Amino acid sequence: MLDIAGIRVGYPAPGGGTRVVVDGLSLSLGAGGIGCLLGASGCGKTTVLRAVAGFEPVLEGSIDVQGRRVAASGLSLPPEQRSVGMMFQDYALFPHMDAAANIAFGLRGRTRAEQRARVAEMLALVGLGERGGAYPHELSGGQQQRVALARALAPGPALLLLDEPFSNLDTDTRQTLAAELRQLLKASGATVLMVTHDQSEAFAMADRIGVMDRGRILQWDCAEALYRRPADRFVAGFIGRGSLVPASALGLARSGDVLLRPHALRPDAQGPVAAELVALAFRGPGHVLGLRLDGGALVEVDLDDADAASLAGLAPGTTLRLRLVDGTPVGFD
Ligand SMILES: Nc1ncnc2c1ncn2[C@@H]1O[C@H](COP(=O)(O)OP(=O)(O)OP(=O)(O)O)[C@@H](O)[C@H]1O
């Protein structure tokens, strides 16, 4: 449905020439899938969306939507011919138009009756059936987001692009809204490519996530694979909690480092791993044990209540014994 193959995208550099900000980036998304580009500010996420939407040309590589080439070196179909809808970070709703008129905006060219029917369908889809007459300032941030989504979906684009869909919303409501938005998108059948810098949003929303760094995708995978089988050190450090520690500190027969997640070690009097207790603290929802491994690496271990109770009162500096759970951690040379 969406195939991006080795695209290079850049902007004019201040001193002349081009500053490449997306370099050799590829991804594929099946029909109805939700893909997400995840990365720090400035890594090139929005630029990828702009290239797919038709606002930036590609210097190399190609973009196909529904099997049709929309961009390549020397080829750039205009945005309106790409069957791509975009929801912008600030929603870009027209303040002087009510919700229904905002949604109808992308339906120019259709008959009045068709527009009315489609607007009603979209309002119902986003759960705002009764609010078509409300102006943007009369709606909450979450409701404005849904109107913007309805507007982007109304023309029936093959592909929907969402740029930081939660950036204007309270952190408290983001998690709930992410789950809700995912349901809405799945119900609409749309294929979606979104971008965010927030890992929990990416995990809550997407079927596939591309971890980006400096214009490249380092791994394109489902959330669980990114967490359990990161492809390289950057992804290992970027996704989830954990530390890279020398394999030798855990007595493992391999060289290099391994990725130790907070649940990878458990206290066990017979365990093969020795470590020094640095701190034991309640952080909510549970206790976190700080340890210094052989060789000095500091790690954190999440404890269940029984293990925390068994260690309560031990002084910092005490030597503990632990064992690895869930097999051997992922390693990096
Ligand atoms: N119109 C432009 N002209 C020149 N440089 C630009 C332009 N837009 C973005 N850039 C630069 O390209 C790089 C990538 O920007 P982009 O907006 O794609 O990153 P991003 O990952 O989406 O970041 P953010 O989350 O901050 O939006 C940045 O260094 C940015 O300064």
Commentary on this structure:
With 333 residues, the chain is α+β, with helices and mostly antiparallel strands. The chain folds into two domains: 31-47 and 78-237, P-loop containing nucleotide triphosphate hydrolases (Rossmann fold), CATH 3.40.50; 242-332, Beta Barrel (OB fold (Dihydrolipoamide Acetyltransferase, E2P)), CATH 2.40.50. The chain is 26% helix and 33% strand. It has nine helices and 19 strands. It has a six-stranded mixed β-sheet with strand order 7-8-9-3-10-11, with helices on both faces. It has a five-stranded antiparallel β-sheet with strand order 2-1-4-5-6, with helices on one face. α5 (171-188) packs parallel to α6. The longest helix is centred in the middle third of the chain and has 18 residues, at 171-188. The protein is globular and about 75 Å long. The mean pLDDT is 91. The structure holds adenosine-5'-triphosphate.
Short description:
The protein is an alpha+beta fold and 333 residues long.
Share of β-strand residues? 25-35%
Count of domain modules: 2
Query: In the CATH hierarchy, what is the superfamily of the largest domain?
Result: P-loop containing nucleotide triphosphate hydrolases
Number of strands: 19
Q: Oligomeric status of the shown chains?
A: single chain
> How are the strands ordered across the major sheet?
7-8-9-3-10-11
- CATH topology title of the largest domain: Rossmann fold
